[in-house]
């Protein structure tokens, strides 16, 4: 009988993370061979990595030992800060190396970035309805129609165009096989911005009060689910609820104490929908700007979003997530936006060996 003993060892080391935005000085180096401008660009990228490391990081190591033989040994680093901007302060050459000094502004990686940037493209998806079959359609349909009309008007679609259907489901969000087939077949899925998935839940119940006064009540929940169209991550949800009293034998009743009323009672529907949309806009304003990479040409990344997604020339982008393999070297792939269109952009990698192929996601760091 062969017995195997497998031991897995892991270790986590955390360095203090910054609590607020601050300015740090960092120095970067790169081999001086060929084009000096390229060497300077590589050295700036190295200095940016040093600035991120100065903001704190978590190191995690794992070793797998099988029968006293090390089968695998890996280490990962998770950044706790991001560079929101930098300024080149000095550069010099020394012993075949290009060296630069930068003054970089770093912020906690999870700090919200709420600014006055224009809203990104908002793609309004199909509305999900959950309506109690016992409810009279004459009571439910006007509310659903008013909600749909307000959403189309708020997020840039023509409310009067009946032929305009919901936006295609982003590939990162698609879970149903038909949605994924449609995206792959037609290629019309958004690659940047925010995908909004509205939902309505309407329930009805009987109510009664003193003197056997009876009526019906409709409880409504209106909500918006906001997802990052590039990464498929949930940005947040916004919800508002209200209740209506429905007519019974020619009478309408207040929902609080069910006293007879001369006319129907309902919440301020327009105000409720308006507050819901404003809650959603606030979530969108504070979202991380993530753009799906459409392709690559040499050191340049071709991005699937441009100024309409909130990008500007000079913006720093992180390619991939904050966790990287640190077994051999510490490298957070980064790029800087060098040219910009309305819906496309180019970003240049600081290190050409970094990952950054079609399908990856680049996240703005400011």
UniProtKB/TrEMBL annotation:
Superkingdom in the source lineage: Bacteria
Leader peptide range in chain numbering: 1-19
Matching Gene3D superfamilies: FlgT, N-terminal domain
Annotated ranges, domain Flagellar assembly protein T N-terminal: 23-107
Keyword set includes Ribonucleoprotein: no
Keywords per UniProt: Signal
A Pfam family that the UniProt record links to this protein: FlgT_N
Protein name from the UniProt record: Flagellar assembly protein T N-terminal domain-containing protein
Organism, as annotated: Tardibacter chloracetimidivorans
Lineage of origin: Bacteria, Pseudomonadati, Pseudomonadota, Alphaproteobacteria, Sphingomonadales
């Amino acid at each position: 009988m062969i017995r195997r003993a497998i031991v897995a060892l892991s270790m986590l080391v955390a360095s203090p993370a910054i609590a607020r935005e601050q300015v740090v000085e960092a120095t970067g180096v790169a081999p001086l061979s060929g084009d000096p401008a390229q060497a300077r660009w590589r050295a700036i990228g190295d200095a940016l990595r040093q600035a991120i490391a100065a903001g704190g990081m978590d190191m995690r190591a794992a070793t797998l030992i099988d029968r006293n033989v090390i089968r695998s040994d890996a280490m990962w680093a998770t950044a706790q800060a991001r560079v929101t901007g930098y300024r080149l302060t000095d550069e010099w050459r020394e012993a075949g190396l290009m060296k630069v000094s930068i003054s970089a502004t770093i912020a906690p990686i999870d700090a919200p970035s709420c600014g006055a940037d224009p809203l990104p493209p908002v793609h309004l998806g199909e509305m999900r309805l959950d309506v109690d079959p016992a409810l009279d359609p004459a009571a439910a349909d006007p509310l659903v129609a008013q909600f749909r009309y307000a959403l189309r008007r708020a997020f840039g679609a023509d409310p009067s165009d009946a032929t305009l259907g919901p936006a295609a489901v982003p590939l990162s969000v698609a879970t149903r096989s038909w949605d994924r087939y449609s995206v792959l077949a037609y290629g019309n899925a958004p690659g940047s911005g925010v995908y909004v998935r509205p939902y309505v839940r309407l329930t009805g119940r009987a109510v009664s009060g003193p003197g056997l006064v009876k009526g019906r009540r409709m409880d409504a929940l209106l909500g918006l689910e906001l997802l990052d169209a590039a990464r498929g991550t949930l940005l947040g949800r916004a919800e508002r609820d209200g209740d209506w009293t429905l007519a019974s034998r020619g009478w309408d009743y207040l929902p609080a104490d069910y006293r007879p009323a001369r006319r129907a009672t309902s919440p301020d529907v327009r105000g409720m929908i308006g507050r819901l949309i404003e809650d959603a806009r606030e979530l969108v304003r504070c979202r991380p700007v993530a753009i799906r990479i459409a392709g690559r040409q040499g050191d340049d990344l071709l991005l699937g979003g441009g100024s309409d997604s909130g990008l500007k020339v000079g913006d720093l982008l992180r390619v991939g997530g904050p966790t990287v393999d640190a077994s051999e070297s510490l490298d957070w792939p980064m790029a800087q936006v060098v040219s910009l269109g309305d819906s496309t952009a180019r970003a240049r990698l600081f290190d050409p060996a970094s990952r950054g192929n079609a399908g990856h996601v680049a996240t703005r760091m400011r």
